[in-house]
TrEMBL record:
The chain crosses the membrane at residues 26-44, 50-71, 103-125, 131-157, 164-185, 197-220. Its main location: membrane. Coiled coil: none annotated. The gene is ccmB. Pfam families: CcmB (PF03379). Required for the export of heme to the periplasm for the biogenesis of c-type cytochromes. It is a multi-pass membrane protein. GO terms for molecular function: heme transmembrane transporter activity. This is Heme exporter protein B. GO terms for biological process: cytochrome c biosynthetic process; cytochrome complex assembly. Keywords: Cell inner membrane, Cell membrane, Cytochrome c-type biogenesis, Membrane, Transmembrane, Transmembrane helix, Transport.
Length: 225
Protein backbone atom coordinates (compact mmCIF):
# COMPACT_ATOMS: atom_id res chain seq x y z
CA UNK A 1 0.00 0.00 0.00
CA UNK A 2 2.84 2.40 0.79
CA UNK A 3 4.35 1.73 -2.65
CA UNK A 4 1.03 2.50 -4.30
CA UNK A 5 0.72 5.77 -2.38
CA UNK A 6 4.30 6.69 -3.30
CA UNK A 7 3.57 6.06 -6.99
CA UNK A 8 0.41 8.18 -6.69
CA UNK A 9 2.37 11.06 -5.12
CA UNK A 10 5.25 10.87 -7.60
CA UNK A 11 2.92 10.90 -10.61
CA UNK A 12 0.91 13.77 -9.16
CA UNK A 13 4.07 15.85 -8.59
CA UNK A 14 5.34 14.97 -12.08
CA UNK A 15 2.14 16.14 -13.78
CA UNK A 16 2.04 19.34 -11.74
CA UNK A 17 5.66 20.07 -12.65
CA UNK A 18 4.98 19.46 -16.35
CA UNK A 19 1.93 21.71 -16.15
CA UNK A 20 4.02 24.45 -14.53
CA UNK A 21 6.46 24.27 -17.43
CA UNK A 22 3.60 24.85 -19.90
CA UNK A 23 1.88 27.71 -18.12
CA UNK A 24 0.85 29.40 -21.38
CA UNK A 25 -1.23 26.37 -22.39
CA UNK A 26 -2.80 26.14 -18.95
CA UNK A 27 -3.99 29.73 -19.05
CA UNK A 28 -6.15 29.10 -22.13
CA UNK A 29 -9.15 27.52 -20.30
CA UNK A 30 -9.11 30.25 -17.65
CA UNK A 31 -8.92 33.04 -20.24
CA UNK A 32 -11.67 31.36 -22.24
CA UNK A 33 -13.81 31.17 -19.10
CA UNK A 34 -13.30 34.84 -18.31
CA UNK A 35 -13.94 36.00 -21.87
CA UNK A 36 -17.12 33.98 -22.35
CA UNK A 37 -18.70 35.21 -19.11
CA UNK A 38 -17.65 38.84 -19.64
CA UNK A 39 -19.14 38.93 -23.16
CA UNK A 40 -22.69 38.22 -22.01
CA UNK A 41 -23.33 41.70 -20.52
CA UNK A 42 -22.20 43.19 -23.84
CA UNK A 43 -24.26 40.82 -25.98
CA UNK A 44 -27.49 40.65 -23.94
CA UNK A 45 -27.96 43.52 -21.52
CA UNK A 46 -26.03 45.33 -18.79
CA UNK A 47 -29.18 45.46 -16.65
CA UNK A 48 -28.37 43.99 -13.19
CA UNK A 49 -31.66 42.08 -12.93
CA UNK A 50 -31.16 40.41 -16.30
CA UNK A 51 -27.56 39.49 -15.52
CA UNK A 52 -28.50 38.13 -12.09
CA UNK A 53 -31.12 35.85 -13.66
CA UNK A 54 -28.79 34.41 -16.30
CA UNK A 55 -25.58 34.37 -14.23
CA UNK A 56 -25.80 30.77 -12.87
CA UNK A 57 -26.41 29.26 -16.29
CA UNK A 58 -23.81 31.46 -17.99
CA UNK A 59 -21.06 30.72 -15.48
CA UNK A 60 -21.74 27.00 -15.51
CA UNK A 61 -21.97 26.72 -19.30
CA UNK A 62 -18.65 28.60 -19.53
CA UNK A 63 -17.22 26.16 -16.96
CA UNK A 64 -18.30 23.15 -19.06
CA UNK A 65 -16.81 24.62 -22.23
CA UNK A 66 -13.55 25.54 -20.47
CA UNK A 67 -13.34 22.00 -19.09
CA UNK A 68 -13.85 20.59 -22.59
CA UNK A 69 -11.07 22.83 -23.86
CA UNK A 70 -8.58 21.39 -21.37
CA UNK A 71 -9.62 17.73 -21.31
CA UNK A 72 -7.49 16.59 -24.24
CA UNK A 73 -4.34 17.51 -22.28
CA UNK A 74 -5.11 14.85 -19.66
CA UNK A 75 -3.44 11.93 -21.49
CA UNK A 76 -2.37 13.31 -24.87
CA UNK A 77 1.23 14.31 -24.13
CA UNK A 78 1.91 11.06 -22.28
CA UNK A 79 0.43 9.09 -25.17
CA UNK A 80 2.55 10.95 -27.73
CA UNK A 81 5.86 10.38 -25.94
CA UNK A 82 5.12 6.77 -24.95
CA UNK A 83 5.07 7.32 -21.19
CA UNK A 84 1.37 6.46 -20.99
CA UNK A 85 2.14 2.93 -22.18
CA UNK A 86 4.86 2.64 -19.53
CA UNK A 87 2.39 3.77 -16.87
CA UNK A 88 -0.12 1.16 -18.04
CA UNK A 89 2.54 -1.58 -18.00
CA UNK A 90 3.91 -0.70 -14.57
CA UNK A 91 3.33 -2.92 -11.55
CA UNK A 92 1.36 -0.20 -9.80
CA UNK A 93 -2.41 0.04 -9.64
CA UNK A 94 -3.49 1.72 -12.91
CA UNK A 95 -6.81 3.14 -11.58
CA UNK A 96 -4.86 4.82 -8.77
CA UNK A 97 -2.36 6.28 -11.25
CA UNK A 98 -5.04 7.68 -13.54
CA UNK A 99 -6.72 9.15 -10.47
CA UNK A 100 -3.44 10.97 -9.71
CA UNK A 101 -3.37 12.36 -13.25
CA UNK A 102 -7.00 13.43 -12.98
CA UNK A 103 -6.33 15.17 -9.67
CA UNK A 104 -3.40 17.03 -11.24
CA UNK A 105 -5.64 18.03 -14.15
CA UNK A 106 -8.28 19.40 -11.77
CA UNK A 107 -5.69 21.30 -9.71
CA UNK A 108 -4.36 23.14 -12.78
CA UNK A 109 -7.66 23.68 -14.62
CA UNK A 110 -10.69 23.29 -12.35
CA UNK A 111 -9.24 24.96 -9.26
CA UNK A 112 -8.37 28.26 -11.06
CA UNK A 113 -11.96 28.44 -12.37
CA UNK A 114 -13.18 27.92 -8.82
CA UNK A 115 -10.94 30.68 -7.44
CA UNK A 116 -11.90 33.27 -10.05
CA UNK A 117 -15.65 32.54 -9.97
CA UNK A 118 -16.47 34.91 -7.03
CA UNK A 119 -15.22 37.85 -9.09
CA UNK A 120 -17.44 36.80 -11.97
CA UNK A 121 -20.35 36.34 -9.58
CA UNK A 122 -19.91 39.93 -8.41
CA UNK A 123 -19.55 41.04 -12.03
CA UNK A 124 -22.90 39.36 -12.80
CA UNK A 125 -24.57 40.94 -9.73
CA UNK A 126 -25.12 37.70 -7.82
CA UNK A 127 -26.00 38.18 -4.12
CA UNK A 128 -23.48 37.09 -1.50
CA UNK A 129 -25.42 33.94 -0.56
CA UNK A 130 -25.58 32.84 -4.19
CA UNK A 131 -21.83 33.39 -4.65
CA UNK A 132 -21.17 31.05 -1.73
CA UNK A 133 -23.42 28.38 -3.29
CA UNK A 134 -21.74 28.96 -6.67
CA UNK A 135 -18.38 28.20 -5.07
CA UNK A 136 -19.77 25.08 -3.43
CA UNK A 137 -21.31 23.80 -6.69
CA UNK A 138 -18.03 24.39 -8.51
CA UNK A 139 -16.14 22.59 -5.75
CA UNK A 140 -18.44 19.59 -6.13
CA UNK A 141 -19.00 19.79 -9.89
CA UNK A 142 -15.64 20.54 -11.48
CA UNK A 143 -14.01 17.31 -10.18
CA UNK A 144 -16.91 15.41 -11.76
CA UNK A 145 -16.12 17.08 -15.09
CA UNK A 146 -12.49 15.96 -14.86
CA UNK A 147 -13.35 12.42 -13.77
CA UNK A 148 -16.12 11.77 -16.27
CA UNK A 149 -14.31 13.64 -19.04
CA UNK A 150 -11.24 11.51 -18.37
CA UNK A 151 -13.18 8.43 -19.46
CA UNK A 152 -13.90 10.03 -22.83
CA UNK A 153 -10.29 11.15 -23.20
CA UNK A 154 -9.05 7.65 -22.41
CA UNK A 155 -11.33 6.20 -25.09
CA UNK A 156 -10.26 8.70 -27.78
CA UNK A 157 -6.59 9.27 -26.92
CA UNK A 158 -5.45 6.96 -29.70
CA UNK A 159 -7.37 8.89 -32.37
CA UNK A 160 -5.65 11.69 -34.24
CA UNK A 161 -8.80 13.80 -34.51
CA UNK A 162 -10.85 12.72 -31.54
CA UNK A 163 -11.97 16.17 -30.39
CA UNK A 164 -15.44 16.04 -31.92
CA UNK A 165 -15.99 12.46 -30.79
CA UNK A 166 -14.85 13.42 -27.29
CA UNK A 167 -17.43 16.21 -27.19
CA UNK A 168 -20.19 13.86 -28.32
CA UNK A 169 -19.20 11.32 -25.66
CA UNK A 170 -18.88 13.50 -22.59
CA UNK A 171 -21.17 16.52 -23.08
CA UNK A 172 -24.38 14.49 -22.50
CA UNK A 173 -22.83 13.16 -19.28
CA UNK A 174 -22.11 16.71 -18.12
CA UNK A 175 -25.75 17.82 -18.43
CA UNK A 176 -26.92 16.55 -14.98
CA UNK A 177 -24.09 18.50 -13.34
CA UNK A 178 -25.07 21.63 -15.26
CA UNK A 179 -28.76 21.29 -14.38
CA UNK A 180 -28.37 20.74 -10.66
CA UNK A 181 -25.49 23.19 -10.17
CA UNK A 182 -27.23 26.05 -11.99
CA UNK A 183 -30.49 25.18 -10.22
CA UNK A 184 -28.78 25.42 -6.82
CA UNK A 185 -27.37 28.87 -7.57
CA UNK A 186 -30.74 30.05 -8.93
CA UNK A 187 -32.47 28.79 -5.81
CA UNK A 188 -29.95 30.56 -3.57
CA UNK A 189 -30.52 33.78 -5.51
CA UNK A 190 -34.26 33.48 -4.80
CA UNK A 191 -33.73 32.58 -1.14
CA UNK A 192 -34.91 28.99 -1.58
CA UNK A 193 -33.29 25.87 -0.02
CA UNK A 194 -30.55 24.21 -2.07
CA UNK A 195 -29.92 21.07 0.00
CA UNK A 196 -31.39 18.68 -2.55
CA UNK A 197 -29.26 19.93 -5.43
CA UNK A 198 -26.07 19.86 -3.35
CA UNK A 199 -26.79 16.31 -2.14
CA UNK A 200 -27.28 15.22 -5.74
CA UNK A 201 -23.96 16.80 -6.78
CA UNK A 202 -22.27 15.13 -3.80
CA UNK A 203 -23.73 11.77 -4.83
CA UNK A 204 -22.50 12.26 -8.40
CA UNK A 205 -19.02 13.15 -7.13
CA UNK A 206 -18.93 10.05 -4.91
CA UNK A 207 -20.04 7.87 -7.81
CA UNK A 208 -17.48 9.43 -10.15
CA UNK A 209 -14.65 9.02 -7.63
CA UNK A 210 -15.60 5.39 -7.10
CA UNK A 211 -16.10 4.22 -10.69
CA UNK A 212 -14.31 6.63 -13.04
CA UNK A 213 -10.71 5.53 -12.26
CA UNK A 214 -11.57 1.92 -13.13
CA UNK A 215 -13.40 3.00 -16.30
CA UNK A 216 -10.45 5.20 -17.33
CA UNK A 217 -7.98 2.38 -16.72
CA UNK A 218 -10.04 -0.05 -18.81
CA UNK A 219 -10.46 2.52 -21.60
CA UNK A 220 -6.72 3.22 -21.65
CA UNK A 221 -5.92 -0.47 -21.99
CA UNK A 222 -8.32 -0.65 -24.95
CA UNK A 223 -6.80 2.45 -26.59
CA UNK A 224 -3.23 1.22 -26.11
CA UNK A 225 -3.86 -2.21 -27.63
Amino acid sequence: MSHQFTAFTVLLKRDLMLAYRHRAELSNPLLFFLIVVSLFPLGISPDPNVLQNIAPGVIWVATLLAAMLSLDNLFRSDFDDGSLEQIALSAHNLPLLVLAKTLAHWLVTGLPLLLVSPLLGIFMFLPTEAIGILLLTLLLGTPILSLVGGIGVALTVGLRRGGLLLSLLVLPLFIPVLIFAASAVNAATSGLPVTGQLYFLGALLTLALTLSPFAMAAALRISLN
